Amino acid sequence: MSEDLPVIVIAGNPNSNDYSANRVLHHTTGSPDFNQQLRAFKEVTCAQVSITHVEEAARLIDFALSTALAQRKPALI
């Protein structure tokens, strides 16, 4: 029944310095691809947002929350 609840998953992103350094990080598949988690959650959530710039935070969080509530499905921030 949890797939019909507006659950919000809040997960951390790599440090912003890691994006340009192309580093392989822990909890990855060994590739410097920072969208792995987003793609995995795409299969089980109605919205997935990745906040990489503070200016976008309010808009992206609002999108994820409102989509989860409207669709009564989990979302990832």
Automatic annotation (TrEMBL):
<dbReference type="GO" id="GO:0005829">
    <property type="term" value="C:cytosol"/>
</dbReference>
<keyword id="KW-0479">Metal-binding</keyword>
<keyword id="KW-0670">Pyruvate</keyword>
<keyword id="KW-0210">Decarboxylase</keyword>
<keyword id="KW-0786">Thiamine pyrophosphate</keyword>
<comment type="subunit">
    <text>Homotetramer.</text>
</comment>
<dbReference type="InterPro" id="IPR012110">
    <property type="entry name" value="PDC/IPDC-like"/>
</dbReference>
<dbReference type="GO" id="GO:0046872">
    <property type="term" value="F:metal ion binding"/>
</dbReference>
<dbReference type="GO" id="GO:0004737">
    <property type="term" value="F:pyruvate decarboxylase activity"/>
</dbReference>
<dbReference type="GO" id="GO:0000949">
    <property type="term" value="P:aromatic amino acid family catabolic process to alcohol via Ehrlich pathway"/>
</dbReference>
<protein>
    <recommendedName>
        <fullName>pyruvate decarboxylase</fullName>
        <ecNumber>4.1.1.1</ecNumber>
    </recommendedName>
</protein>
<comment type="similarity">
    <text>Belongs to the TPP enzyme family.</text>
</comment>
<keyword id="KW-0460">Magnesium</keyword>
<dbReference type="InterPro" id="IPR029061">
    <property type="entry name" value="THDP-binding"/>
</dbReference>
<keyword id="KW-0456">Lyase</keyword>
